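Encode chain A's predicted structure.
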Amino acid sequence: MTNLIENPVYESGIFQIEADTPVLGGPVGFNLGEPTTGFSNAQAQQLANRTAYLNNSKVSSSDLTNTADTTKGSGLVGRSIRRVYSFSELGTVQGRDAGDQVQLVGYFASSPGIGGGLFTWFPSATDTPDGGTVVQVGVTTGRWKRTNFNNTVSPTWFGALGNGVNDSTAMAAMFATNYHVEIPAGDFAFTPQNVKAGCIIKGVGGRQSADPLLTTKLRNLTPNSILLDQAIVSSALTPGFCLYDCFVNSDSGVRQNDPTVTIADGGASPPIMGTKIERCDFVPLTVGLGTGVSLSKCFDFGISFCNMKQFGTLLMMQGCDLGVVEHNRLTNIQNYGILELGVSTFGSQVEIKHNDMLLSIAGGIFIKTTSRHARIFDNYLEQTSGSCAGFIDATSTGV
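Encoded structure for chain A:
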């Protein structure tokens, strides 16, 4: 008696014996998947081949506990695991083949569903790990990469929880990437951050609300400082970052270009183009401090549908051209509601219109401009009680 010779091949199908199939034993021969000899042994041969293939693929207990070989131990387990429970755990699981995928349940095991997502293994990749979208497992070549995120990242992917506790490390890692940003509802408390040119930041809502699912709150942990800053020293035209649907709680909320840098043609401060700030609330940590939004040498910008209150200056524009400030509500004016400063040949044709401005403290001015071509019209200015220094001051003095 002779045994079938088993080949470790995973057969894609099993031969079906038909009514007219010859009853013949002996070694099995195949041509294009069909038996040509040994018909009666064809099914047994195919099943034996499958068994040999699976037997060679099985994992031994010694393989599972092997820590010296990166292709075994946790790396080998990673071939079969398709779910990990924390970002740190993902960094211990090595992929085997291109296209392997792992589902991250959450950035932290204690917070499932927050910061999770699908990762794909790229065995030839050498990208720098960034703490949220690219993971290095301890090998020089090979990376897990977050899948299908369309060039927009969330702070939760980098470890932010938005629970009012310090999220500074996660926010810094996120803003260090070259991606746009979408921030979910929550209370994200962090230290000041530099925002890259052209970055688009979107929240889910900029109004203070009792419903935590309706507001993205960005809160500065450092008093008397700028939370989101794009202070560039360059002579090249630069795109500004944009901010939508966020509640900003900081003594100075947003700055684009450093107002202390000399503004002149060919000067050190670059022109910033295309800044947009829409549907955001700005409130200081301490009443009377800082500037809600500060723009210097910004062209073709827009600020609309925002609420600002209680800053020393709610909105400052220095050497800005061809912008639009409209449909905003500015209240509790301390020094200036809107301060528009012309500098050198800059500061011209910014439209300030359809804004609702209420209540200045004594000595405060609703709108102050030194622009060469001031365009202020159709605003509602109301002093409900007490006195103010003026509604609109278009003189070049007193600044």
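DSSP finds five helices and 36 strands in the chain.
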